[in-house]
Design goal:
Blueprint (H helix, E strand, L loop, with lengths): L25 H22 L3 E8 L5 H8 L8 E5 L5 H4 L5 H4 L8 E5 L8 H4 L2 H4 L14 H20 L2 E9 L2 H13 L9 H7 L2 H15 L6 E5 L3 H16 L12 H5 L1 H9 L2
Parallel strand pairs: 1-3, 1-4, 2-3, 4-5
Helix pairs in contact: 1-11, 2-11
Length: 285
Amino acid sequence: MKTNPNRVTGKVQLSKISTLQVEKDAKKKLKKTRKKISKIQDVMYAHGKYSVLICFQGMDTAGKDSLIREVFKSFNTRGINVHSFKQPSKEELEHDYLWRHYKVLPERGTFGIFNRTHYENVLVTRVHPEYVLGENIPSIENLDQVNDSFFHNRMEKINNFEEHIAENGTIVLKFFLNISKEEQKNRLLRRIEFQEKNWKFSSADIKERKLWDDYMVCYEDLLNRTSTENAPWYIIPSDDKPTSRLLVAETILETLRKYTDIDEPELDNKTAANLQEYKKMLINE
């Protein structure tokens, strides 16, 4: 089978990867693709053997929220949960950094969507290492200890975490929505210029934008260290939102179709043998 061109299978350099791809009739194709995924979701829910964890990372304005809305629009809500991870709460800081992610993993038969993910712990905290001091880790006493070795160790632990859940039936897909700095600028300006989009704007977006290059270094490092066979990363060109959504949907569909053992459960012999009798009973009520 042909390898998905967006999958990270070797060393990547983000500066050499295009952020723009335009697919003709992307919206129309997405509509068909998401319906196909939703049918598989129904079977998976009844089958109850696998769960699916889909992770989205990207710079501010990369389109995570709207992508989730459009790609999973046809899903039965009983089989999907979306979690958005922001600044850790007091309770979350009293646990290890993976605790808040682990406790909301999808149940068998369901899909879990992480809008921002456990990788915030090697992204935001790496760009702002002072945040790690707030975690009260016994072995960390000063910022000098929050170095590359510290974050590489975290990435190894994250790999182990994902390997563990994959071995226990969770299908893991991770998407980095790759937008250009120029496109982010345009989207931030739209948030300012259009009143209906004002609520999306935050002054923090401008502060973080100044750290763009730092974030790109961190993203490139984690993409190269944490794309594994059981939990691959896909770099999605996201300057064009309709194409970005389609590429994600097609990747999900392509992945799920590989699981040929996902089938609707069969009725027990007694129930199956008496279906026509049950039908008569209902008709003759």
